[in-house]
Amino acid sequence: MKIELPNFHYFYSKNPYSGSLGGFRFRLEPGDGQLKAIAWPGPNCMEATDPALLRTEEFALTEEGLGAAGEWLTSQCEEWTYKGV
To answer: How many CB atoms are located within 10 Å of the residue 45 CB?
Structure first.
């Protein structure tokens, strides 16, 4: 299962994006040249999840960085799905 994301211009325009797949939750937050990816197990929203369960990674705010963020999110989703989350 691959995480599908909006195109690069969506993030370049400083729009955050969140989504879920089964019990997996994620959010992408664009910043100054960076794209912060956050992943956590559901069922709660990010704010109601124990901070110890949040996984974060930063990527360059570029087409390549967006692709890498999508791959990272997909790997996190597969790991949590394998664990039965």
So the answer is: 12
Domain ranges of the chain: 8-82
- Tens-place pLDDT, residues 28-82: 999 999 999 999 999 999 999 999 999 999 999 999 999 999 999 999 999 877 5
The CA dihedral of 85, 57, 2, 28, to the nearest 10 degrees, is: 100
- Asked whether the beta carbons of 17 and 28 are under 8 A apart, the reply is yes
Pairing of β 34-41 and β 24-30: antiparallel
Say what the pTM is: 0.90
Query: Both tokens of residue 64?
Result: 């390549």
